[in-house]
Amino acid sequence: MSGPTSLAGVLQQANLCSTPAGDLPPGKCQTQSATAVVCTAPVPGVAKVWFYTYPALSTLYTQYVNQVTALAGSYQPNTNTHCGNTIGSYAETGWNHLELHPTQFTYQQMEAASFNQVQAMGRQACFLSGGKPYLVWTTDVGGMLAVAQGTGSTSALYNWWAQIHHVIIFRGTVMCGQNMGRMNSVPQGNLRSSMVCPTGSTPGGGGMSSPSASMSGGM
Prior knowledge:
Elements: H1 7-17, E1 29-33, E2 36-40, E3 46-53, H2 57-72, E4 90-95, H3 107-110, E5 122-129, E6 132-139, E7 144-150, H4 154-164, E8 173-176, E9 191-194
Parallel strand pairs: 8-9
Antiparallel strand pairs: 1-2, 2-3, 3-7, 4-5, 5-6, 6-7
């Protein structure tokens, strides 16, 4: 628990550890308050990103659903497809640090203090609004909501998100193993890590079983 505690500090560290580094250049990001940071044109293909933190998961998910509804017209949980290089009309799932996109959980389940973050660290929704691609996601440890607007290319926005979201690490984050590509440079200061993943939870394992009690985490 030696890493940064502030939203701005966590994002600055993520910038150094993204692969490649430099996905959130400090010169492109403005700290508006202790709970709000806005980055303008951090990389080509990304027009703007808003980051917010909230003190409770219930508040976080109220804001997440409201933001998706406001931009996309409605909130539709757990679609058959997940966000990718070719964002269609709408997609929404959970996400985790195993690079999986679970659809078996609702945000109401994820609000519970007993929910295990190895199973799902947050949720993501992507869609087109006003002809522009958007990707809205949560990071539950840290209570963070982010809204990213692309400049036109859906693949550029998604690839940026894929590089940055795994290295935004608030205190108490848990990972089981870090030998996967995007997790090679994850900041260690705020990380609780086990190199043994629960049976059935590894990428390509065809599903996820319940992690052991020692792996449970939360805010």
